[in-house]
Amino acid sequence: MDQKEIKVISVNISEKKGTIKKPVDQIELNELGVKDDAHSGNWHRQVSLLGNESVKKFEKDAKRHIEYGEFAENITTEGLVLYETNPLDKLIIGNTELEITQIGKKCHGSSCAIFKEVGNCVMPKEGIFARVLKNGIVKAGDIVKYIPKVYKVNVITLSDRAFKGEYEDRSGPRILELLDEFFEKNNLQFETEHTIIPDDPEALRTLLERAEDDQIDVVFTTGGTGVGPRDYTPDVVQDLLDKEIPGIMESIRLKYGLEKPNALLSRGVAGLMGQTFVYTLPGSVKAVNEYMEEILKTLIHLKYMLHGLDVH
């Protein structure tokens, strides 16, 4: 993503939704969005932003000059391809702070005043929306600092033998490989940490409590989900969960258990511990592949749900 200097080149307000916004000297951001703007309110699309890169591109296609605010953006920027950002990324503008909540939106076509006047609208594809995290004043010329969301993931392998060095842990590294592929594919930044511990419930509890305190986004455990005398993982995790998410594990067991009944014997659980999602996977590489294939389908959507984002 382009990382040259990013700045605000116009700030714009409109009194009615679906209409062109007019440039003003400055805007005031508060807990509802842009003061005196029609789109302010207690929702996730408080502030709209559009890059001048998109405006210039449309100008070329339309063969006419486009004024700032014509696409109903509150803030027009330059220096960052805004639609390549992601929800939960942040923008620091002066003393204000915005959290990106949505990329693009549904276009209302001919029922929209902007569409009627301009003949098209770039916002549905290339505009972004944000909510205010820190109040303040924004004006043309302000420098924008872009801070991508960095997903923090812990992987915990539970194995007495692997901890003693008697057995090579392959399931933990496989989870890391699949996470690398997933985050790269989705253009998301991430950090991972891998720890091997014995099948010790107190050691696991300590790591999970630390992950919650550090607001780690996701914890994956591998191993200890069966019914053996040293299989404690689901019991420790379930005791720490604030909200369980039973459907994902039930679905995985059913999907693979239809062909291989032994897959039904895993006691793996999933849920939310504070702001941290936890998934307990079996200890085999084959099971890791099967579980991660299903879990990764909803992982980012769950994170957006946790933050109150209606992203589909």
Report a brief summary of the structure.
The protein has helices at 52-62, 113-118, 123-126, 160-164, 171-185, 201-213, 233-240, 246-257, 285-295, 299-306; strands at 6-13, 22-24, 26-30, 33-34, 47-51, 75-78, 90-93, 96-103, 128-134, 136-139, 143-147, 150-158, 189-197, 218-222, 243-244, 270-273, 276-281.
Describe the structure.
The protein has 312 residues and is α+β, with helices and mostly antiparallel strands. It folds into two domains: 142 residues, M1 Pyruvate Kinase, Domain 3 (Beta Barrel), CATH 2.40.33; 157 residues, Molybdenum Cofactor Biosythetic Enzyme, Chain A. It is 30% helix and 29% strand. It is built from ten helices and 17 strands. The strands form three sheets. A seven-stranded mixed beta barrel has the order 1-6-5-9-8-7-11. Strands 13-12-14-17-16-15 form a six-stranded mixed β-sheet, with helices on both faces. Strand 7 and strand 8 form a beta hairpin. The longest helix has 15 residues. The radius of gyration is 24 Å and the shape is elongated. The mean pLDDT is 92.
User: Please, what is the CATH homologous superfamily of the largest domain?
Assistant: MoaB/Mog-like domain
Report the mean per-residue pLDDT as an integer.
Answer: 92
Please give the order of strands in the largest beta sheet: 1-6-5-9-8-7-11
Tell me about the largest β-sheet.
Answer: 7 strands, mixed, barrel
Helix proportion range:
25-40%
User: What is the radius of gyration?
Assistant: 24 Å
N-to-C order of helices and strands: EEEEEHEEEHHEEEEHHEHEHEHEEHH
Number of helices: 10
Total beta-strand segments: 17
CATH architecture of the largest domain: 3-Layer(aba) Sandwich
